[in-house]
């Protein structure tokens, strides 16, 4: 398959996908391609009435198909067929996503889409392997913990990894026997619609997956506040997560999974493999141009090796090839919007004006599209927004330490606790510090998720509530009741 393509040759499924069909809708939000800034499509906005239609369709589909009550292996088989179709349609999915998002088409085919299919298969296997349990009681009683699906789950996904984030929500919800109403980001909605269309082709009951498009203020609020949405799953910013919690509290009480922002540290000790550490750190902050919640954007280096690490990172940061997302040779992504690029530039400029040293980057890149150069800032004040705020761009700050205690103190962020990285050859130190680091995921001598979907992800502090991926994500889509029978 030749992955490069002409972006003007792609047609987009503009509309809401409810039941088994795409509903025509008037585009409201202008959509610009990040790679060249061109207006290419429009996104409609679903109001409360249309969201209610999607929810009622989901409820009817659950009742008519008995999706949550059929033999669990039937759910497994149907979801596996869907995963096979996702693999088979990788080229079509990659093209839809590459045009609208920051994900290069080559990365999508080899990574995101294949991973999404794996995730669907992974969660499908839980359907007939996790369930109710008998529990110990006295001889006069029989005790059971009965596990059941919630019913209709509401999900909201971000723009930075549209397909794989949809897989995070769809896989466990459907495997657990639920229906789902999902709102992808208004910046990157089309690949999620195609996933829903493929589910119908795979034989999943029509109406189990309903995709409504729109913004957070209108469509997102209608989903999270709907009385028949039994559980909410969201991935996005901490600010948006707080707004969702407020909206849910205003309209009732329901469980939620929130995977939110991060400002993750990467700690490098002098005994580490420095070339490997520099390579991993650079790859992480330049991957998707740093637009990832787990981006390791705070580099903490033992003082004696700071010049060496800085030189290695600077040299490697200059090698990534920027280009349009529809070019198979592209290695370095654009920023999602001109507004986001301006925010990145403002934070970097303010840090430099306050005395930070810009060792590389620190500028917008010329040409078409919303590109920003990989940036390394040293001597940044601890109170600078470059340290305290989630920039969501290719910006790495570097601070130094002399002891483990100092490293931990710098690593501990007052707001975020999503992930952390640690580079050392001392096993005892690695174990000591993983116990002390306040983060939901810690990587040692590596940085970034693997394809071991059994490992859950989620944050400490204001980085979230609950877990995505792993057994925890499946169980989060089931509710339990206790039953005690007198014999």
General description of the model:
- Helix 2 (72-88) crosses helix 6 (190-201), helix 3 crosses helix 4 (105-124) and helix 4 runs parallel beside helix 5 (162-175).
- Strand 3 (29-32) and strand 4 form a beta hairpin.
- The chain has two domains: 7-260 and 464-486, Aldehyde Dehydrogenase, Chain A, domain 1 (3-Layer(aba) Sandwich), CATH 3.40.605.10; 265-452, Aldehyde Dehydrogenase, Chain A, domain 2 (3-Layer(aba) Sandwich), CATH 3.40.309.
- It has 15 helices and 22 strands.
- The model has no long low-confidence stretch (mean pLDDT 96).
- By secondary structure, it is an alpha/beta fold.
- The protein starts with 15 loop residues before the first strand and ends with a strand.
- The longest helix is centred in the first third of the chain and has 20 residues, at 105-124.
